[in-house]
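FAQ: What does the model actually see?

It sees only this:
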Amino acid sequence: MVKSAYVKLACVLSLGVLSIFLFVPSAQSGFWDRFKSTVGPVKGDTSHNNSSLSQQEIIEGLRDALQVAAKRAVQVASSEGGFLNNPNIHIPLPPKLQKAASILRHIGYKDDVDTFEATLNHAAEKASVKALPIFIQAIKDLTFQDAKTIWKGGDTAATDYFKGKTWEPLSKAFEPVVHEAVQQVGVTKAYQDLTEKPLVHNITQGTSMDLDSYVTDKTLEGLFFLLGQEEKKIRKDPMARTTDILRKVFGQK
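And it is asked to produce this:
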C-alpha cells in the first residue's frame, strides 16, 4: 500500500512538472535556454552556428576576405584592358566633354576622341597596380565594431562599409599615384591634342576639368566594384575561400 502511494505521488508530481514546461511558455523557454547553456548546441539547432568563433576570428576573417578580394580586384583592374575592355568599370569621357565628343566624332575627330578616352582607362589600369598597399593598410585598420556591423550583412556589406569609411583617405593617398600614371600614359597630352585643334577648341571652349581627380574617382569606383564582386564570391562560393580563416568564418555564416 505504501509503495503504491509513493508511485501515485511520483506520477502526479511528474505530470505537474511536465505540464509547466508544456503549457507555460516562459518556464519552457527558461528551461530550454538553461538546458542548451549546460549541454551546448543541440544537433539540428542552428541558433549557435557561430558559437565557436571568437571576436578575433571574426575580424580576422573579414580582414582576410577584404585583402583577398582586393588582391583579385587589383589583378583584374591592372591587367591590359582591365578598365578599357570591361563595360562594368570602363571610364567614359568626362561629362563636360561627352556632348562635344559626340559632335567631334561626326566631323572627323573620332580617332582623337577615342585616343583620349583610351588614355583615361590606361591610366586607371596603371595606377591600379599601386593601389593594393594603400587598400591593405586601410583594411588593417578595420575594427571589431566595424566587423560586427558588416559580418552578417548583404553580399557586398564589407565592401560597401569599407568604401564609405575610407573613400576620402584612399582618394588622397591614391591621387599622386594617378597623377603619375596620367603623365606616363599621356592623358594630358591627348586632351590637349584634342582640344587645341581650331575647330575643336571652338566647341569645347570654356570646358576645363581636373583630369587627375576625375581619373582618381573613376579608378576607385572601378576597384570597389571589383572588390564587391570578389566579396560576393567569398560569401557564396566555398571554392573562393582560399584560406583557413575564410573557410572557418564564412563557412559558419
